[in-house]
Amino acid sequence: MSGLSLPGTVAVIVVVTAMVVVAALYRPRRALRDGARPVTPGSAAMALSDEYLSGALIVGFAGLVLVSGVHSLWLGVGALAGLVLMVALVAAPLRRSGAYTLSDFTEWRLGSRKVRRAASACVCFAAWVYLLPQLQGVGLTLTVTAGLPQWVGVAVVVGVVTLAVLSGRARGMTAGQALQFWAKLVAVTLPVVAVLIFAGAGHRPDPTRFAAPTDVRVTQDVAIQVGAPLTVTATGRVDGLPRTGPVRLGPGRHVLGAGGRVRFPQNAVVPRAEPVRRPADAPATGRAHTLYGVYSLLAAMILGTMGLPFLVLRLYTVPSARGVRRTLLGALGLLSLFLLLPALYGALGHAAAPETALTGWPDGTLLDLPNRLLPGPSAEIATALLVAGVFCAFVSGTTAIVLAVASTISQCLLGGGVASFRAGAVIALMVPLALMTVVGPVSAGVVVPYAFAIAAASLCPLLVLGVWWRRLTGIGAAAGMIAGGGATVACFAGYLVGGPWPGWIADLVLHPALAAAPLGFLVMWGVSLLTARRAPDGTGVAMARMHLPEAVVGVATARRQS
What we know:
This protein is of the alpha+beta class. It has two domains: 6-23 and 40-201 and 293-552, Up-down Bundle (Sodium/glucose cotransporter); 214-269, no CATH class. The chain has 23 helices and seven strands. It has helices at 6-25, 28-36, 41-52, 55-68, 73-89, 91-97, 102-110, 113-146, 150-166, 174-200, 290-305, 309-314, 321-338, 340-352, 365-373, 376-412, 418-439, 444-468, 474-497, 503-510, 513-530, 539-547, 550-561, and strands at residues 214-217, 222-226, 230-238, 241-249, 252-256, 261-264, 272-275. The strands form two sheets. A four-stranded antiparallel sheet has the order 1-6-3-4, with no helix packed on it. A hairpin with a 2-residue loop joins strand 3 (230-238) and strand 4 (241-249). Helix 6 (91-97) packs across helix 13 and helix 7 packs antiparallel against helix 8. The longest helix is centred in the C-terminal third of the chain and has 37 residues, at 376-412. The radius of gyration is 24 Å and the shape is globular. The termini are far apart.
């Protein structure tokens, strides 16, 4: 969309004003009391769902379905299955441990501040990778839907999140988040209903044009249909031949090879695109390993959910381990309802406007679809609703992550206290902002799974073995986190460099979880066996506290104190 859009701008102003007013009305002391007050599992489930449904996850899921088709639907399945696994394995024991953050749990269970620092580093890396597409996505969201410069969207979100965190509002926002979840659900549902009605009535989109010179990274062999002669700048294989520099594409079908880059000129019509289907006996290439990619994406989402730092914070707003399980099961139902929507947007975009996969930002599918498929004023109204819902998702998701990182940095590096918490919040935002200026545009549908993969390869082994295996040692835990988390961070750096990577190396770089998570578990297990004599003191007491009923633990504690 070019030019300033009045409906999109009004939607942003309304959402920002509402959030600023709520943040201003909360006083820090009152917010702290509200955050410490137990809430019902139903309210906690809605608040957790609101935090989990970040803007990057919503628009990234839709964009991934647009680009990769049905294979990407496993992302939503993995996100939901991760909550089931968390309920089964770690939710109640973690709640009984009394640890407020993952770093606190590490030191409490293993008795080592050095291992605590390793866990804190993994939390920060996973959170910063998650924040990168969050901040970049909100800037591009306002550019696409409201015609505002990208830096405006980033500045607005950073300002609102900073006010929310530093004012204390973030510590006492359960009730507001519960309401926000339903507001997002309505805002995202109504436009897709309208799109389905008009698409079924035969409305067809107008051709999309590149708003600016656009670089497209080709992640798999793709065939494009060019309607008029077009000159692009290519690096990689075009129609089976290696190309570097300007390439003239005549009308008709052309094949862009995986691992290459193509720069389209401004105002050129975006060509329709579809993946190239290879014969069954064709030699395997990096992008042909779709089964490995699906399993790795599932592993990242299922195992990584347990390591998301804000989920641990949410466990302490309910009064008991039983309430924790009810909260997570309630969130499972709410998320099942919501995650159908971005998948539906992506499927509609894949069917009605597949060429938008080549616009350089497939995450814009969800936001641009009303303008593509709805006529006249209805498109502007639907877009304004989407902007409001997605902008809320960006702010709430960013706030939850910044709060978790600020708590981790404050407690682990800065000694605790209000001043160190505020400094931690600034650091939590500054790192991804600096990274944005270096890496350029990224797709949330690709980058968000990296954040889950880092958690899956480092924090998930720590939690599972720390809760269920009494022989875990501090040295083993640190070695496993460094091996699994370090390998995933290295793969993320490889993705940013861009390759091209040959064959299986490309798949390991793009989908590291299925290799890195077992590596983290194996190293943690093996090193712990080799250092069994250095097992922490009080392991038996810690295991009893996590696994015995809370009433029994409470009676035993009272007797010791008397």
